[in-house]
Amino acid sequence: MTNANNSAMPTPVDVARARSETPGCAEVVHLNNAGAALTPAPVLDAVIDHLRLEARLGGYEAAAAAAPKVNAVYESIARLIGCRPHEVAVVENATRAWDMAFYAMRFGPGDRILTSRAEYASNVIAFLQVARRTGAHIEVVDDDEHGQLSVEDLQRRLDDDVKLVAVTHVPTQSGLVNPAIEIGRLTRAAGVPFLLDACQSVGQLPVNVRDIGCDMLSATGRKFLRGPRGTGFLYVSDRLVETMEPPFLDLHAATWTDAQTYDIRPDARRFENWETNYAAKIGLGVAVGYALDWGIEAIEERVTALATRLRHQLAQLPGVTVQDRGRRLCGIVTFTVDGVPAADVHRRLTAAGINTSVSAITSARYDLGARNLPAVLRASVHYYNTDEEIDTLCATLNSRRT
Ligand SMILES: *Cc1c(COP(=O)(O)O)cnc(C)c1O
């Protein structure tokens, strides 16, 4: 049933079943999977069931009763990304996951942090804060002629002053897939820690931390994994974890051992905190298992086919420009309409029952700024979308001249 492991020909997704297990498919044309995908019924049921259990038994008692399901969350995530369960921390979202890793690293004057043009605004804001505090320098690695991170430029910049390479795998504002495996090869050879923001890639593409060679990886639940909102996770490798002091500690991340001392947990859960939304956490585990049951290769194959069709159709529409760059493209499709602000296009599509979103320059200044784009419209497909939905989007775009 699971095709997740390198089978040459993944069993294609049964789209009719995927849609019948997704209540939202009957309501909307959902092309905002990079914002938050529609949750499948098993995830919804798992969340609601746990909330009901809490109401009946009490929250602590429900958590104890659900302990096997909670442990299964770590096992599922470990299977998904190719690590071990104790290398995973489950937290509120991808930003918190990324921040816990980033702010656990130590930088000083003259240290260099290398990043990508694709980088997400929240990551860059953290870079700027830390640069201001410590005197570390932020350097943006050039793109190559395809619009992806230039591996040659990265190689040229890697030296002993570089204390971190932090790269976004798939950005929020484009269909680009950055060459994570090539980046990991270089960082490993240079002995520099590699933090991968895999928020938009996990769930739509195979992402394996051993293949990539990243030391840290952050992801969210609600995007391509189709989990509940308010969930995310952090992977930190065994190699690094004990050298990293979390920016916050509590009685879950550490133990108060003596009046004056505490011990930090040895595993990645040092980046968690004690109180958590158990229903959402269990739902995340179910979402990961659900994705693995479809098979990540099968998901990627269908997502890529749908996105290719969409880009092709958009390119035929007068006044529409597809804005995706990169050698390898994914399920995020971005475009602009001549003379019409992205927010206006978005509003019209929403009124027609088609969910998309807008990526504004404030989300990605290094990238959209360099391309002189104040905003792009983003239509992000998932495996439960259909050719007909793509046709509907394009027909709606074509039926107006605002
Ligand atoms: C959405 C996104 C994030 C932030 O994820 P949250 O779960 O909202 O914290 C980080 N990086 C990228 C590339 C994103 O698209």
From TrEMBL:
Domain annotation Aminotransferase class V: ranges: 30-393
Keyword tags: Aminotransferase, Pyridoxal phosphate, Transferase
PROSITE patterns listed in its UniProt record: AA_TRANSFER_CLASS_5 (PS00595)
Domain of life: Bacteria
GO molecular function: transaminase activity
Entry-linked InterPro entries: Aminotrans_V_dom, Aminotrans_V_PyrdxlP_BS, PyrdxlP-dep_Trfase, PyrdxlP-dep_Trfase_major, PyrdxlP-dep_Trfase_small
Cofactor: pyridoxal 5'-phosphate
Similarity comment: Belongs to the class-V pyridoxal-phosphate-dependent aminotransferase family.
UniProt-recorded name of the protein: Aminotransferase class V-fold PLP-dependent enzyme
